[in-house]
Amino acid sequence: MRIGILGLGRIGAFHAETLSGLDAVESLVVSDPFADAAKSAAERFGAEVADSPEALLAAGVDGVVVAAATDAHPGLILACVEAGVPVFCEKPVARTIGEGVEVLKAVGGRDVPVQIGFNRRFDAGFVAARAAVRSGELGKLHTVRSTTLDPAPPPAAYVAASGGIFRDCSVHDFDIIRWVTGREVTEVYAAGGNRGADYIREAGDADTTGAVLTLDDGTLAVVSNSRHNGRGHDVRMELHGFADSIAVGLEEKLPLRSVEPGTTFPAGTPHDFFMDRFTDAYRAELTAFTEVVAGSRPSPCTIAEALEAGWIAEACTLSLHEHRPVTVEEVRQA
Questions:
Q1: Whole-angstrom Cα distance, residue 115 to residue 122?
Q2: Is 44 exposed, middle or buried (CB count within 10 Å of its CB: 0-12, 13-18, 19+)?
Q3: Residue 17, exposed/middle/buried by CB under 10 A (0-12, 13-18, 19+)?
Q4: Residue 62: which of 23, 116, 108, 112 has the closest Cα?
Q5: Alpha-carbon dihedral 291, 307, 254, 200, rounded to 10 degrees
Q6: End-to-end CA gap in the chain
């Protein structure tokens, strides 16, 4: 099949490399507002260059991967859907939850699949955790812990436009908690602080946060996030039930050092970035998209699914700023 890629920045170029190695992908068509980025990708992966999204859609592509800036997501998703071309779009759906809802309404009733990129759904550990919960082997859950710690904060320009740590970082935790447990979040209480880069504070954001989520069956989920983790990129999940407890990410490249005498675990080189931690997951995610394009499976993460994690992020952002518990229903009705 012939796949188009809109946006050849860091993640777009990474996706181009991944797609070029998939058996189902015969050729790539790439486009970026910065001609040099598109030219570089074309040279590396033998891709055809289109000088605009419109030209790319007219080039006979079977599916499109959107890896452009967030503000461009709604228009590009809608352009692909209107052209009848299946589309994969990196999260978020749009810059704000309101704009995301408008995109959902606009594509409603269209028979064109849209897949939103939440790569943890394709990580082997998280897939195994979901299966363990579904099988009942953990018994009734009582506590979930989800962690995302970045090795260093993103640039000031990114932070200023990101919408805040809950919307651009923690949202991965929120999505995977829903996906693994099969439960909905009803209420949140969030706190945060700033111990590092001044530009994060100046943007009205926190660089380190914690949130307690109450799920609809009474399970508590604790989410921990930070822009500063000197040992590496740390993504983990613990699930504690009445019958058993399991962990995702408890492996040799875990960026954590034990000080217990005689303990050598973990002994591997710590993960240093999300593309290192989730290389296999990204490959599985884009393989799934080729199956969506081929019509052999439905979208594994729809716009509606992605927005559910977005509502939790909205509730946590409000809770952080107002120092109080917030229900998800409250932000839905705002």
A1: 13
A2: middle
A3: middle
A4: 112
A5: 130
A6: 43
pLDDT tens digits, the chain, 334 residues: what are they?
A: 999 999 998 899 999 999 999 999 999 999 999 989 999 999 999 999 999 999 999 999 999 999 998 999 999 999 999 999 999 999 999 999 999 999 999 998 899 999 999 999 999 999 999 999 999 999 999 999 999 999 999 899 888 888 899 999 999 999 999 999 999 999 999 999 999 989 999 999 999 999 999 999 999 999 999 999 999 999 999 999 999 999 999 999 999 999 999 999 999 999 998 889 999 999 999 999 999 999 999 999 999 999 999 999 999 999 999 999 999 999 999 8
Q: What are 195's two structure tokens? A: 């111990």
How, if at all, do strands 220-226 and 208-215 pair? Answer: antiparallel
SS3 percent helix, strand, coil of the chain, rounded to 5, is 45, 20, 35
Identity of residue 93: V
